[in-house]
Amino acid sequence: MKIGLGQVDITPPPKVPMDGYEYRKTGSTGVHDPLHVRALVADDGRTRLAWVIAELIGFGRALTDRVRDLAGSAAGIPAGHIMVSATHTHGGPSPRPRPGVDADHQAHGRWLGDLPGKMAEAVVLASADACESVLLRGRGRLDTVQHNRRMILKDGRTVMDWDHPDPSLLGEPGPVDPDVWILAVERRGRIEGLLSQFACHATVLPQDNFLITADWPGVSCHEMAAGLGPGAWAAVAQGCCGNINPRFPRDSFEEAQKKGKAVARAAVEALARAVPLKGPLAATIEPVFLPRRKQGEDPYAGEIQALKMGEAAVVGLPGECFAEIGLDIKGRSPFSATLVGSYATDYDLGYVPAESAYAGGAYEIAATKLAPGADRLLAEAALKALGRP
Predict the structure, then answer these.
(1) Closest CA to 34 of 235, 213, 225, 256
(2) Tens digits of residue pLDDT in 232-280
(3) Residue 153 DSSP one-character state
(4) Distance in angstroms (rounded) separating the CA atoms of residues 124 and 149
(5) DSSP 61-104
(6) Do residues 168 and 154 make contact, with C-beta atoms less than 8 angstroms apart?
(7) Residue 248: other Cβ atoms inside 10 A
(8) Within a 13 Å sphere around the CA of 66, how many CA atoms are in the beta-carbon half?
(9) Distance CA 19, CA 210 (A)
(10) Which of 307, 301, 273, 278 has the alpha carbon at shortest distance from 289?
(11) Percentage of residues of the chain with pLDDT beyond 70
C-alpha cells in the first residue's frame, strides 16, 4: 500500500468573525496557535482514498462538495472516496459569513474563498507524497479529561455542565466514549504519521476567548508530531461528542495544553500496541433520511460515508452526534477497528441526540431539528455502509 500525508495552513487573518459561541459579537483579536487542514491518502493499486481533517468548527455540504470536486480532479481520486471532516474547534473562524458581527468581513470573505482550494491542496500534497507504507491500527483508553455534559440530577431533571449543579444533587453520570483509536503510517523504517480519534468537544477555551486556536486537538497534534521526530505528520479526528465536554477545570490555554497532552499520551501508548492492517481499500456512501422535529417538513437528506482499510473502517457522520450513537455503531461494526466521528460532510444538520435524551430536555434537545428516532436511522445507515446486513 502507498500512503501520502499532507498539511496546509488555514489560519485566518485578524479581525475575522469567529464561531462556536453566539456571545461573540466582534472579530478575532489575534492568533494563539495556527490552524491546519491535514490529509491522508491511501492507494492499494486498485482503490484510492483520502481523509481530509480541518481545524474548524464544521462546514456545510456545499463546501464538502467543492473540496471533493477540486481534490478529486487534481489528485485523481473519485469524489465519493474523499471524506471531509472537522475537529469542531470553537476557537476558529466562522465557516460562513456573519454580517451581524463587528469584524473585517472583506478579509473573512477572501479567507472563505480560498478555503476550499487550500483543503484540496492538502489532498494534492498527500497524493504527491505517497510511497510504500505499512498502515497500523491501535486502541487506547482515556476517560479522565471528558465528561457527559448532560448532568442528570437525583430528582430526574437534566441540567448542563455550565449550570454548575451542586455535586450532592447529581445522579449517575451519562456515558462517554473512552476510545482513543489511532492509525499510524510506517515508512522508511519509522513511524512518520500518526492520526488519533477521540470524542470530546474542542471547547476548553470559553466564549470570551477571541484568539484563534485549534484548542486541545491542536495541542495533541503538536505533541504527537514532536514525539515522532522531525518531519512527522500528526492529525486529530473528532469523535461523536455532541453531548461530551472537557471536564472542569477548563477555560484557559493551560487547561487546553493539559487535556491535549493527555490525549496525545494515550495515542502514543496505543501506538506501542499497534498492529499492521491487512486487506483491500474500499469506500461507501450510504444515503440517510432523518425525520424533522417540525411536522410537515421534509426529512433531512444526507449521507453516511465509510472508508475501509482492510480490517479497519472510518465512519463519517453529519451533524453533532451524541456519544451513544458512536458507541452503538462501534459495538455492532463488523470491523475489528472502527473509528466513528461526527462533523463530516454536513455540519448544518445540527444535533443528533440519542432518543433517550429527549425526555430530559435541556440545551441540545431544545436546539435539535430532528425528531426522536433519528439516532437509530443514522446508526442503521452507518452499519449498512460498513456492510453489515
Answers:
(1) 213
(2) 999 999 999 999 999 999 999 999 999 999 999 999 999 999 999 999 9
(3) B
(4) 39
(5) HHHHHHHHHHHHHHHT--GGGEEEEE--BSSSB-SS--TTSBS-
(6) no
(7) 11
(8) 13
(9) 10
(10) 301
(11) 100
Note whether 29 and 182 are within 8 A (CB): no
Per-residue model confidence (pLDDT) at position 143: 97
DSSP symbol at 231: T
Helix (H, G, I), strand (E, B) or coil at 218: helix
Which residues fall within 8 angstroms of residue 296, CB to CB, at 6 or more apart?
none
Which residues have a Cβ under 8 Å from the Cβ of 350 and sit 6 or more positions away?
A: 319, 320, 367, 368, 369, 370
Q: What are the angstrom distances between the C-alpha of 294 and each of 278, 286, 297, 372? A: 46, 24, 6, 11
Which region, left, alpha or beta, applies to residue 45 given φ > 0 means left and ψ of -120 to 50 means alpha?
left
Cα–Cα distance for residue pair 38/170, rounded to 1 Å? 40
Please state the separation of Cα 132 from the chain's center in Å: 27
Question: Is the model's pLDDT at 389 over the cut of 90?
Answer: no
List Cβ neighbours of 375 (8 Å cut-off, separation of 6 or more).
Answer: 321, 322, 324, 325, 328, 352, 353, 354, 355
C-alpha cell at 133: 507504507
- Extract the C-alpha cell encoding 157: 431533571
Cell of residue 170, nine digits:
447529581
Three-state secondary structure call for residue 52 = strand
Helix (H, G, I), strand (E, B) or coil at 119: helix
The residues, ordered by sequence, that sit 6+ positions from 28 with a Cβ below 8 Å of its Cβ are 12, 14, 15, 16, 17, 18, 93, 103, 210, 211, 212
Query: Rounded to 5 degrees, what are φ and ψ at 373?
Result: 100, -15
Alpha helices of 141-272 — where are they, by DSSP H?
A: 215-228, 253-271
Nearest Cα residue to 20 out of 208, 247, 237: 208
pTM, full prediction: 0.97
Partners of 150 in beta bridges:
160
- The Cα 194–Cα 240 span in angstroms is 20
Residues 17, 98: Cα–Cα separation, whole Å: 7
Residue keyed to cell 448532568: 151
The set of cell numbers assigned to 152 is: 442528570
How many residues in total does the chain contain? 389
